[in-house]
Amino acid sequence: ASRPDEAGLVAGYWMVLAYLLHTMGELCLSPVGLSAVTKLAVPSVVGVMMGSWFLATAYSEFVAVQLAKLAAIETVGGAVTDVSIALASYTDLFTNLCYVGLIAGGLLLLLSPRLKKLMHGIHGFVTLTSGRARSPPATCLNHNACPPAGQTNKQ
After folding, report:
1. How far apart are CA 85 and CA 116, in angstroms?
2. DSSP-derived 3-state class of residue 79
3. Per-residue pLDDT tens for 110-141?
4. Of 57, 59, 66, which is closest to residue 93 (Cα–Cα)?
């Protein structure tokens, strides 16, 4: 994508690849996030928390619109007047977005031990045993009665 032709066009497979990666990311993230929301929320507000999850998705669309406005290039008759200026503008914008993503990812990696501690063992509820997912014991529905991850509840 860094080598456009004279008209400023790149091969169409870049768009297909971008859509494929975004779709696969969404398919991997959404079920895991919704599962975490239902496990971590207080039972009386699970519906509200799931609604908040979808509102966060809607807010991300608003952020995408703002980024699209930043990426807008002036055109005359639907054509870019100076391809080199457009390429420099896009390169600068997406380089900055890459750095913002790397910094945010690094911060989340630093925060992950604290977040796991705040989850009170919820992340370890489903374990794989002989190829099948095993649900937590009924006593673990009250999060305070759950054994630490890796131990069994002998009652």
Report:
1. 46
2. strand
3. 999 998 888 877 765 444 444 454 555 544 55
4. 66
